Amino acid sequence: MVIFSVVTSLLGGRPLFAMPPGSGEVKVVVAGNDRSFAAIARSLTESLSFIAVAPRFERVAAVDPRSVAENHQPVPSLLAYLWIDAATDREVTLYITDAATQRVFVRRISLDHGVDAVAVEGLAFVAQNSLEALMAGKLIGMSRDDYEHSLDAAAPRTVVRPPVAENAAVSPPVLKGTNQSFAPTSSWRPWAGYELQGWNRVTIRHEADLGISCQCSTLRLGMSLFATWPIQFHSGDSGASLFSSGGRLDVSRPFSPTRNLRVVPGLGFAVEATRVRPDLNAPNAQPASPYFALDPTVRADLGMEHSWGRWSLRGIFGADFAVRPVQYVITRQTETATVATPWRVRPFVSIAVAVPL
Question: Are residues 77 and 200 in the same domain?
Fold first, then answer.
């Protein structure tokens, strides 16, 4: 019998300012052309839906770095302000402030091919993880005073320089910029699940799952370990108990029809190791060779996921397809008896609970 145990320890600091624990809104101010604005709005709306945050967009001609640090009247439902300067094809600058404008986070993204899909997805990824950090009470960026001082330090000044000899090497000045970043919160999400699978006409198999998934741009990649409850079969006076465990890799593409609800279709591949043990009531029976049967399976599934703050609950249904036909047999003296033949296509339903690291 295989026993899985997971111990998760979450460490957090005391928040500098109070943030609502659940969903809320962010105000997003964007400077850019029509195409850039539409692409940024579409990507941010989808990305922020994963953390139950709704953006309210406003388009402006330009973003003034000094206006970012201005105080704003408190709005109960507002979590933060996002300022996105995408007015040029060389660089996009993202500013994030908490609702009280106590801290300012700045991230500059260099562009190789203008505001293309790669740049927009990267911008959405940084914004989602930064807001997730704020909701968890973590500190990002720098204080407002430090931010304003950095702008003053980076402002051009009139400097009287001593004469320089002709052809002398001159080192370019180094300015301290405002690109203060932090290690964003992880997009990895551990989860635990329980599954019921139609194994054959008379058997329902119970399965426990533990896994972890990562949101990479628009795709979600996952890996998990699973183990089943032992099941017993008898054929005549021969019998056996079967216990299966294994690992699974999967990829899915979440869609968000509403702010808190996601539709998650996916595909997966698993390798299942099944231990065949003769029934104790048949002492002369011996397990067929090999003792462990290795069976690859392919999975197609569709999930419905609902978020409550940082937690999410997902219901899933689908089917496993055995790559090759499977029969479990035991040998008794000179005879071989088949004790179990599972379906090649096995429908299942499952439920899983996930939380960000």
Answer: no
